[in-house]
Amino acid sequence: MGTVWTGLVGIFAELGTPGWIAFAALLMLAAPLVDRLVIRRKRIDYRVLYNSKIGLDPLSKHDKDDELSSDADPRLRHLTSMAGRMSVVIIRIRNVGNYDIEKKDFDEPISFTFGKRVVWDARISEASTPELRSACREHMAFFTEDHAPRRKPPNGDAGDLGAVRKWLKSRMFTTIEAGQTELGPQWHGVRLGRLALKRNEKFKLVVVLQEPDEHTGHELTKTVDVEGRIENGWIRDEKKKPRLTWAGAMMGVSVLLAGALVATSINSVAATEPAYCATGTIHVEGSSAFMPVVDRAVQKYEQECRAAEISTSASGSIDGLEMLGQETGSSSVDAVFSDAPAVDGNFHRTPIAVVNFAVVINEQADVPGLTSEQLRSIFSGQVTDWQEVGGTPGPIKIVDRRDLSGTRKVFESEIIKGTIESPEDPCDSKMLAPAAPVHCWSSDTRAVLNRVETTPGAIGFADANAALDPAQAPNLKVIPIDGKEPGEEGYEFRAVESLYTRSTGQANPLLTKFREYITGDDVRDILTGSGNKPCGNPRQEPCPTE
């Protein structure tokens, strides 16, 4: 945006007259205000204020009493080892914009991940109001490195602050009394769900962490990764400059080159890799509903196959297939995951798994379930009020997907048994605000779930596993279709997720190996753990007839 304003100022200044120069100066003065008040009105800044070890070490070799180190109680030795691997991270989060931020403004909630470090405790400090502190504490959710911030936690793991405090007490007791630390859940991050910040409100997130048992060396890791997306605004690190300078660019290139050199050195001495590994680079596009599963499989593959580089993008099933269908050289896409069948194109199809989808509503609609016929009436516009299908009176607000969504194609073919008119306008808070029926679209699975959860009277459809995630806010409800829950025998809202590659052209060794990998036993746990059923490949059940 700043580049555009600078260019306009230059054009007007070149005209040379005082009036034009004054106008250019006015534009220059107005640009920050327009950017702040109109273009990016809602702003959240965060800053990592502290990220360092706690520093408790009674058995340090620098102590004057050397006999303490050699004769110390084994429990004290264990306590010292544990404390030496502990660190504290303090993050300040504040609303620096000119508008209040409500929970419905988030397309994706804020989450912080700390690499391999394990969360021992967390608290909210110095909140602007007691109500803000209570709300943040109540809606904190903790997750592991193997479960993205919106994924389902392991069985038996509540993933809330109460569970964290319970395990903290257990760990401290076993450490002090038994000289060993109970392992417990391995949380690696925290998600701040249902966050609402009034103008100038702020708080601090304090997290106590411990390096994993396999960590060696005295230096602690400093990783703090942040995810989140807000409508009509930004979530930004205060420490980062607003634009890249030449000096910064040169420094970044130097760091990248140094990283490449280090990676090359590591690869040269790496141990023998599994048979499914290959060297190269590929780019994968496809379904936003299935891409979180693909990302976990890719992460595991790259950890084991260090010479492989696989990038992914959730562009949508149909969009991805169109890009794959372009001639080699004009498209950078090597493969596409799609839950919609490819109608055109010379592709090789590899079935991966059966994926269940779900119809979701905002719980204020108070509907226990819907039939396929009722869904056809709702999405065609014939039924516009919830009381017409046994719910609480109120307008029905449809959060749909665009035509390029594979999930939408499955919904049309399996539930609607036809086509539904595609909405023209995207869903945002202004579009969904009026007390009247609405039909709009959201860009991906996460956006649909967030809009339905924060909009009374809303209905939509999405990947069932994401919709059933207990980390989703309680206002989201998955309803049966024709009396069947997702995954039950006879449930129709499902599809076979497939991997599509080109049938012609020179084969990419990495793509061939990755296809073998994702259809093999090494990825089975990732697929089943995400609620998907592998099918159609050796040692797997046949896929349902499509």
Can you give a write-up of this model?
- Helix content is 32%, strand content 23%.
- With 546 residues, the protein is α+β, with helices and mostly antiparallel strands.
- The protein folds into 2 domains: 43-57 and 74-237, Immunoglobulin-like (Sandwich); 278-545, D-Maltodextrin-Binding Protein, domain 2 (3-Layer(aba) Sandwich).
- The longest helix has 23 residues, at 246-268.
- Keywords: Membrane, Signal, Transmembrane, Transmembrane helix.
- It comes from Saccharopolyspora dendranthemae.
- The chain crosses the membrane at residues 20-39, 244-263.
Tally of distinct domains: 2
Query: How would a crystallographer describe the biggest sheet?
Result: 10 strands, mixed
Here the CATH topology of the largest domain equals D-Maltodextrin-Binding Protein, domain 2
Alpha-beta classification: alpha+beta
Low-confidence stretches: 11-18, 31-39, 63-68, 148-156
* Straight-line distance between termini: 48 Å
CATH class of the largest domain: Alpha Beta
At the fourth level of CATH, the homologous superfamily of the largest domain is Periplasmic binding protein-like II
- Percentage of β-strand residues: 15-25%
Q: Let me know the number of strands.
A: 19
Give the averaged pLDDT, no decimals.
81
CATH architecture of the largest domain: 3-Layer(aba) Sandwich
Helix content: 25-40%
The radius of gyration over CA amounts to: 27 Å
Described by the principal axes of the CA atoms, the overall outline is globular
Note the total helix count: 16
Domain PBP: 276-521
Keywords: Membrane, Signal, Transmembrane, Transmembrane helix
Transmembrane segments: 20-39, 244-263
Protein name: ABC-type phosphate transport system substrate-binding protein
